[in-house]
Amino acid sequence: MANVVIAGGGAAGMMAAVRAAERGHQVTLLEQNEKLGKKIYITGKGRCNLTNGCDTEDIFPQFQSNPRFLYSSIYTFDNFRVMDFFEQHGVKLKEERGQRIFPVSDHASDVIRALSQYLRQLGVKVCLETKLTGIRTEDGAVKAVTTLHLPGKEKKTLPADALILAGGGCSYPQTGADGNLFGLCEDLGHTVKPLRPALVPLTVKEDYIPQMMGLSLKNVILTIRDKKKICYEEFGEMLFTHFGVSGPLVLSASSRIRECSEKKPLSAEIDLKPALDEEKLDKRLQRMISEGANKQFKNLIQGLLPAKMLPVVIRLSGIDPEKKGNAITKEERTGLLRLLKAFPFTITGTRGFSEAIITRGGISVKEVDPSTMESKIIKGMYFAGEMLDIDALTGGFNLQAAWSTGYLAGESV
């Protein structure tokens, strides 16, 4: 039986603690917040999209960084085993659009409660408001760790035959994520790939975008280009904000467009009417104009788009809002058609870690054994979850990676 210390009481850390305790080890779980799973509480808008119901092999293409590294961990504890685990521990699950898996209750707290109860049942010692501040090694192997109990500033040294680092990245700092463990790893010789916000809203140049703040678009196609090269094109939902754009399409785009350009603006457009090709949409516009021949353009266009979008589209169309339908020219109608099929804006960058769902970058996977999650540099030190240089698109895949890598680390001790 080994003394196993786990730093980080999120998804990866709790699952690592579960598996290590199931294997009979003495496990101490350190969490610097006042409760476990604080970030899980806010995932999926508080509903917790805990995995995806797709075929297991379809998970890997969703990862934007190092998908091959995850083969062993995901096939050891795949999405179907994750679902079975939570069902067996009293969390009934359901599948929604895109095969996203949620608790039937729509409460992330049920996921955390199930894990917390099982940790107690297994005898895991949970130390809340306790931070890992030092790692002592001898002959290239973990020997002990230093902890700081935050309220009383009390320092302790704990013996450690094995240490699992699952402290997460830097996203959502309001949950306590501060990336402090990366510094300790660098001191021990590990390479940390640059940390960047991922699955994050995008900032936009044009002043007309904030005018539509709060407007959500469904069933549209978002296309992003670097000059003529298409970096991203998908169908789904998005949201206008006071700084730019957000929503599922945009969050996924933020991870994809990094391969195009991180330093220069990218052109973007929205197909507001993807169900209609240009010919069909033009016939609809002709009919609308014909039936409203004596209506002013600003009234004629109502019903074609959400109310919040109308002033912007009227402005960009260049058509006088007072102009009667029977005075609208073919050129003006063609311009409106192009605007509806390719509503333009310019992406200037991303928001920060405070709005990012996950962190891109982290511990270089070249320095971690993918079959065990053990460091290739320090014996007895393991990594799990967002600390690793892995990141996926939305849909439950990032949490799946946390469960899988945490489980394999606990299994491997």
Q: What does this entry show, briefly?
A:
The protein is α+β, with helices and mostly antiparallel strands and about 425 residues long.
Descriptive overview:
- With 413 residues, the protein is α+β, with helices and mostly antiparallel strands.
- The protein has 3 domains: 3-196 and 360-412, FAD/NAD(P)-binding domain; 202-273 and 344-350, Elongation Factor Tu (Ef-tu), domain 3, CATH 2.40.30; 278-342, Helicase, Ruva Protein, domain 3 (Orthogonal Bundle).
- Helix content is 28%, strand content 28%.
- Strands 13-16-15-14-17-18 form a 6-stranded antiparallel barrel. A 5-stranded parallel sheet has the order 7-2-1-11-20, with helices on one face.
- β1, α1 (11-22) and β2 (26-31) form a beta-alpha-beta unit.
- It is elongated and about 85 Å long.
- The model has no long low-confidence stretch (mean pLDDT 94).
